[in-house]
Amino acid sequence: MKVIETPLTAPFSAIRWRWMTPLVIGAMFGVAVLTSPVVRTLFQLEGLRWLYIFLLAFLGTGALTPLMVWVGHRWNLVDAPADRKIHLIPTPRLGGLALYGGFVGSLLLNSIVPDWMVAILIAGSLLLIIGVIDDIRELPASVKLLGQLLAAGIVIASGKVLTLFPAGPLGETANILLTLLWIVGITNAFNFFDGMDGLATGLAVLMAGFMGVVAFETNQAGLGWLAVAMMGAGLGFLPYNFRGTKPAVIFLGDGGSTFIGFTLACLAVKGNWADSSPIVSFSNPLLIFGILIYDMVHITVERVLTGKVTSVKEWLDYVGKDHLHHRLERALGSRQASVAMIFLFTICLGLAALTLRHAGPMEAMLLLIQAGLIAGMITVLEISGRRR
Q1: Which pLDDT does position 189 carry in this prediction?
Q2: pLDDT higher than threshold 90 for residue 276
Q3: Cβ contacts of residue 32 below 8 Å, gap of 6+?
Q4: Domain extent listing, the chain
């Protein structure tokens, strides 16, 4: 298959390769240095294993991403412009493979694969494969949903279940159903946010960062290392996916966005986020993932009330520009401003989540109410912009 190269579409033309070359060379050199046993041992002796994992994920993803750009253009595995999309040039959508390689590689090279993590990685890998297939040849929404249910079932079967409800047959059943709803819901909600350059990747970095801080504060080192690996992989991918006013050279694709959303959702299930009560512990991920939950609830209610969807199948198949980033773009008049607003909202909710470690149920409820009020303010803003 011959690839026609123009200044806008050539992945390794002089225009694009000029700025990517130093990044690739530097990343490859960094990976070579970090994989040295002497360097790895030095980081561990200094108590900087978290930094070693971060750097390895960051540089590994940075080195793999240009390869995925080349593969995408070489085999025409690109996301073509369309009416429901906002990009203007064909863009490779295999970025999830590069991020996955940097993320998983940093864990395997550090021998950080405890039993509880195996199920998450296997299930996440399954969703990555389904997502990449969907990027190459579009799959029915029902098939993707079945894959997500299977992946969530693998994690639940391994013993990772939310414990919001008390012990007992009824409570345990409710916990399993809540866990299933949480994992599948967050996975899809995160996938919906992969609609603007840098948005999904930046959200992954922020959410993983807040969960990592809480994990290390509560002596959950394994959970913290996994969050750090996600941060590093996301930041390694970001220079290629977010370039200010210039178009991205590669997208995460459904494979990358579903893998990230699923992994982050499972981290929330695995973690013990507070020392006081299950309600307080559950409130922590509610705040960190608040932006995703808000958008999912908003579009569902609006689509049902306006008659855009009348069944579950129609909801699964519906594709439109009614997500928060689209609405904020219309209100603010800028994609960059829309992304910045969402990042600021996420940071506000994440900072609130950090205060929950020693909070009581009343403080947790107040913080959740505060998050709801912030969401209400954003709703008023975007509705006002839509009317204008």
Answers
A1: 92
A2: no
A3: none
A4: 1-272, 275-388
Who contacts 313 (Cβ-Cβ below 8 Å, separation ≥6)? 141, 142
Show the tokens assigned to 13.
Answer: 């033309």
Cβ 162 vs Cβ 152: under 8 Å? no
Which H/E stretch holds residue 349?
helix 335-354
What is the C-alpha separation between 7 and 131, in angstroms, rounded?
29
pLDDT at 387: 64
pLDDT at 275: 61
Gap between the Cα atoms of 45 and 60, Å rounded: 22
Q: Which residues pair with 78 in a beta bridge?
A: 92
DSSP state of 318: -
- Using 50, 70 and 90 to split pLDDT, how confident is the model at 150? very high
Q: Which residue in this structure is represented by tokens 């050539």?
A: 10
Is 274 in contact with 288 (CB distance < 8 Å)? no
- 211-243 in b/e form (b: 16+ CB < 10 A) is bbbbbbebebeebbbbbbbbbbbbbbbbbbbbe
pLDDT digits (tens, 9 = 90+) for 251-268: 998 999 999 999 999 999
Number of Cβ within a 10 Å radius of residue 75: 13
Residue where the block lists tokens 């253009």:
73
How many other C-beta atoms lie within 10 A of the C-beta of residue 289? 28
pTM (two decimals): 0.88
58 Cβ neighbours under 8 A, 6+ residues apart: 102, 232, 233, 235, 236
Integer CA distances (angstroms), 76 to 64, 92, 136, in order: 18, 8, 9
pLDDT band at 9 (very low <50, low <70, confident <90, very high): very low
**Residue 76 pLDDT level (bands cut at 50, 70, 90):** confident
Residue entry with tokens 């390689």: 101
Neighbouring CB atoms inside 10 A of 388's CB total 8
Partners of 79 in the beta sheet? 91
Span 152-180, average pLDDT: 87
3-state helix, strand, coil in the chain (%, to 5): 70, 0, 25
Asked if residues 159 and 265 have their Cβ atoms less than 8 Å apart, the reply is: no
